[in-house]
Amino acid sequence: xxxxxxxxxxxxxxxxxxxxxxxxxxxxxxxxxxxxxxxxxxxxxxxxxxxxxxxxxxxxxxxxxxxxxxxxxxxxxxxxxxxxxxxxxxxxxxxxxxxxxxxxxxxxxxxxxxxxxxxxxxxxxxxxxxxxxxxxxxxxxxxxxxxxxxxxxxxxxxxxxxxxxxxxxxxxxxxxxxxxxxxxxxxxxxxxxxxxxxxxxxxxxxxxxxxxxxxxxxxxxxxxxxxxxxxxxxxxxxxxxxxxxxxxxxxxxxxxxxxxxxxxxxxxxxxxxxxxxxxxxxxxxxxxxxxxxxxxxxxxxxxxxxxxxxxxxxxxxxxxxxxxxxxxxxxxxxxxxxxxxxxxxxxxxxxxxxxxxxxxxxxxxxxxxxxxxxxxxxxxxxxxxxxxxxxxxxxxxxxxxxxxxxxxxxxxxxxxxxxxxxxxxxxxxxxx
Length: 432
Fold this sequence. Notes:
Blueprint (H helix, E strand, L loop, with lengths): L2 H4 L8 H16 L3 E4 L5 E4 L4 H10 L2 H7 L8 E4 L5 E9 L14 E10 L3 H12 L5 H11 L7 H16 L9 E2 L2 H16 L1 H20 L4 H7 L14 H22 L4 H17 L3 H23 L6 H12 L7 H8 L3 H12 L3 H19 L4 H7 L5 H12 L3 H13 L1
């Protein structure tokens, strides 16, 4: 969700700059190392702490040989594996201008090779290596040193690997890609990753709900909706997740909150909060996140951060031309979109007669209450169409539209396409 969008503003930068930014991102989010190789296989740049050791695995596993022997044949991410079962991502980068990408006289116009890794797909792989080393002829000291090094290799799910591969391709080409376009070093590598993909699919239903809940929470931030806690209670105990596992619960938690903070900042800006204010808040909470010493303190900070963003957006929306009542009404409607809502009920909730309330709302908001209810329900429907497998009929029923035809008609009037077309078109764009 967020990295590809964050790269949109970087298209004007040289490839080398984009690669270094990506390297910082994957290092911070999942402790993944990034490597840059020149035309003849000479390593120019790396963020790997144990550079010498892991470079040897790339060479022993014939990974670099495969990449350079066939580099004219592929133009998309490549998934590789070395003798220890560690996984690597790689892709070519085009250098348009000499010296533009990396500042060295050795750089020539042509192709560079970007590699991300290594990583393990499961903790089982790590345990298997431990057992293999115990039965090897290596000395105790050598085995200890090797395990100390390998313990720093992140363990990441295959679904996250696929996302990082897509991000790598987008960073280099500004183009989106399907997982079906990936190239595998050999059949063994493909089989290695397939086992993890099946495990990921078991988790899909819960992840689907998390994504939906996340979008609803971020919408509440954007709206400055003070009833966001009610939305959270109606969800699935939403906790922002990061699609990786470093083996360190606190570190994983920090990575998750860091990403969520950036998303809240963006939502707040979209909701009208001044960019300067939002970014100052983002940097403050990033610093406080890194200072957290326990998971409990981290969760408390996340809740405080969310509350802070919501209230700041609400304050920014306060306008002397618009009274508090219509704003409260909008919050009430968005919070209760799944319930049968009537203008009479809302007017009573706001403490006004129906006639006075409808006039007041239209005068200050420039839209009828009934039309605003429709818009709020369609916004919810857009989220449901993209993040769940619910049928259009089910979504229509949950949002109180009465019939699927009427739902489709209202959806088309507001969005400009049918629900089915929206799911097909926008869903495909978000999944590439």
